[in-house]
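TICKET: design request
STATUS: open
ATTACHED STRUCTURE:
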């Protein structure tokens, strides 16, 4: 069973926390994590790009010149793809880029990502921020005391507007909830900073 230290806002160790073996101690499954990252990035694409085909460009109804005897190549419309202002051949059209992943793979990928952070000593558990008001300086002080990396993902057990608004202007720092936690964000950060209450909630969700 993996153990991690729990720190307070000053960076002082306050206790040792035993993590669930089945969530934070599994052997990371790289293909599952890769599939979830590809799926996440694909689902971010809007797929709304669109070009006009020759049938959708206005004009071009009249044949530019007669079929034979001009010395020119035969042409039926000035809106054919080879003409300036003509339609686009085989251009992009609105489509869905999303990739679906089944539940078992999603859970395996999440457990693998969390376990990889524990194995790499990139998981930091914080007792509590203790913010009474919105103060970016206080969050910076906490992150400095904990010696977090350039990219830090703060995981909260539930919505906390004070922490969110205090941390949103710090470069490289992102705040998320246990309910919206995803594999891409976990793997993309240098330090996964999880509040102690959020750890219990993660174990409850993925048990």
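STATUS: resolved
RESOLUTION: sequence designed for all positions
ATTACHED SEQUENCE:
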């Amino acid at each position: 069973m993996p153990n991690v230290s729990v720190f307070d806002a000053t960076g002082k160790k306050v206790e040792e926390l035993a993590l669930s073996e089945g969530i934070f101690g599994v052997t990371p499954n790289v293909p599952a994590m890769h599939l979830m990252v590809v799926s996440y990035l694909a689902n971010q694409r809007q797929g709304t790009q669109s070009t006009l085909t020759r049938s959708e460009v206005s004009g071009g109804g009249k044949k530019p010149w007669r079929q034979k005897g001009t010395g020119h190549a035969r042409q039926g419309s000035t809106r054919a793809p080879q003409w300036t202002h003509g339609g686009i051949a085989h251009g992009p059209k609105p489509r869905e880029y999303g990739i679906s992943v089944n539940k078992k793979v999603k859970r395996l990928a999440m457990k693998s990502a969390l376990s990889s952070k524990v194995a790499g000593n990139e998981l930091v558990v914080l007792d509590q921020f203790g913010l009474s008001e919105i103060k970016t300086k206080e969050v910076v002080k906490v992150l400095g005391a904990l010696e977090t990396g350039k990219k830090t993902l703060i995981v909260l057990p539930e919505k906390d507007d004070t922490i969110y608004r205090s941390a949103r202007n710090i470069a490289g720092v992102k705040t998320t909830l246990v309910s919206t936690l995803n594999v891409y964000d976990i793997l993309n950060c240098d330090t996964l900073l999880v509040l102690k209450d959020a750890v219990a909630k993660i174990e409850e969700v993925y048990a």
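CLOSING REMARK: The chain has seven helices and six strands. The chain has a mean pLDDT of 94.
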